[in-house]
């Protein structure tokens, strides 16, 4: 039987042809296709300024710079995310302050955020894990009360919504990823949604060596920028994907519902939060009943793979990585994130999957788990 990966991008033939056109055009780096994608993303975000970059990691790091976060500042985030979320805080010289996850949403526990705020706290980085939005009302109420900036790590929540509006329509700075595994891709890439033209102008400088082009054909440099612009090749892929995003996400939602219908409830796995309104179902992640299992998660994944099914882990709680242990973090600090991080597995979910693929995954999970349960 065919190997079923946990995710696979879907690039249609029109997009492939459009990339060919760009390659033949004589202009392959940042140009008209990037401008077009920025305009379309801005429309998607209710007219707010949107600027493209080469990755969401770059978008997050530069968002912190736009928000004025630097050495001596603290930034609150959740340890249950891709490590980029905390790495960018360190990159700008600030200190990541972790707050445990909420077991119901697996996102930042908003009941615990205020206790972590100190006079040095400058910003919050909430993460919409698996595409399930963090409660924006509560989040911004906390940020407003304490005068904090918010950098939304919406890498996984492109096309997810809050109260009927796409993520990115409201809020402070919002970062999306177009990495190959995300709900829409440009191969690699990302973007930042900003508040106004001044922020957008600063962000443009930060992404390309701080350069301002002058009307007389020369240039000036007044801030230290880096190199994070997107290519027109990538933007062309992104344009093709944005057209299909709503369809992709509708199909993901259907497949997630099928998982809920067919998943063997006697296995004792905890299923993900059943949100079929706002989530874009970036991933489908049950938590394994490890305490009842006679094999570990690695062995479960290996046995699934032997049956032709790819399973991922997104993510171990990041405060237990060596880099963060060296900064004083330790086991037991964030018990919810640690528990989820140890038990989580990502099962196949991508728009081109057939209904019968979901049935096959559910049957295989039962066949692999039942014999090892006590
Ligand atoms: C993918 C991802 C990122 C980083 O995106 P890149 O485009 O790969 O830099 C950051 N945060 C989260 C939660 C992600 O899933």
From TrEMBL:
It comes from Chromobacterium sphagni. It comes from the Bacteria. Belongs to the DegT/DnrJ/EryC1 family. InterPro entries: DegT/StrS_aminotransferase, PyrdxlP-dep_Trfase, PyrdxlP-dep_Trfase_major, PyrdxlP-dep_Trfase_small. Gene3D superfamilies: Aspartate Aminotransferase, domain 1, Type I PLP-dependent aspartate aminotransferase-like (Major domain). GO terms for molecular function: transaminase activity. This is Aminotransferase DegT. The keyword Transferase applies. The keyword Nucleotide-binding does not apply. Keywords: Aminotransferase, Pyridoxal phosphate, Transferase.
């Amino acid at each position: 039987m065919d190997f079923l990966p946990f995710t696979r991008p879907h690039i249609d033939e029109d997009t492939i042809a459009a990339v060919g056109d760009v390659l033949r055009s004589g202009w392959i780096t940042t140009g008209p296709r990037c401008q077009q994608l920025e305009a379309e993303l801005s429309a998607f975000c209710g007219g707010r300024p949107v600027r493209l970059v080469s990755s969401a990691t770059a978008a997050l790091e530069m968002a912190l710079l736009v928000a004025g976060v630097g050495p001596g500042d603290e930034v609150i985030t959740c340890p249950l995310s891709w490590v980029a979320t905390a790495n960018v805080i360190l990159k700008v010289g600030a200190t990541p302050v972790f707050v445990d996850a909420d077991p119901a949403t697996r996102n930042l526990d908003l009941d615990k955020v205020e206790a972590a705020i100190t006079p040095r706290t400058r910003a919050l980085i909430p993460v919409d894990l698996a595409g399930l939005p963090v409660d924006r009302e509560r989040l911004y109420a906390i940020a407003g009360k304490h005068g904090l900036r918010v950098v939304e790590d919406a890498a996984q929540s492109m096309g997810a919504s809050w109260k009927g509006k796409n993520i990115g329509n409201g809020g402070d700075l919002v970062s999306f990823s177009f990495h190959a595994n995300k709900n829409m891709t440009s191969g690699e890439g990302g973007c930042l949604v900003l508040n106004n033209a001044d922020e957008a102008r600063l962000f443009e400088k930060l992404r390309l060596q701080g350069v301002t082009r002058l009307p007389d054909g020369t240039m000036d440099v007044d801030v230290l920028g880096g190199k994070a612009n997107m290519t027109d090749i990538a933007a062309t892929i992104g344009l093709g994907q944005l057209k299909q995003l709503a369809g992709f996400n509708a199909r993901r939602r259907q497949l997630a519902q099928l998982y809920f219908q067919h998943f063997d409830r006697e296995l004792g796995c905890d299923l993900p939060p059943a949100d079929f309104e706002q989530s874009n179902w970036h991933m489908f992640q049950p938590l394994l009943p490890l305490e009842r299992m006679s094999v570990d998660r690695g062995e479960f994944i290996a046995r699934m793979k032997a049956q032709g099914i790819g399973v991922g882990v997104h993510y171990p709680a990041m405060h237990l990585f060596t880099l963060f242990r060296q900064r004083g973090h330790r086991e037991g600090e964030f018990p919810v994130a640690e528990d989820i991080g140890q038990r989580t597995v990502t099962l196949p979910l991508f728009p081109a999957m057939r209904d019968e693929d979901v049935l096959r995954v559910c049957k295989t999970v039962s066949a692999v788990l039942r014999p090892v349960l006590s």
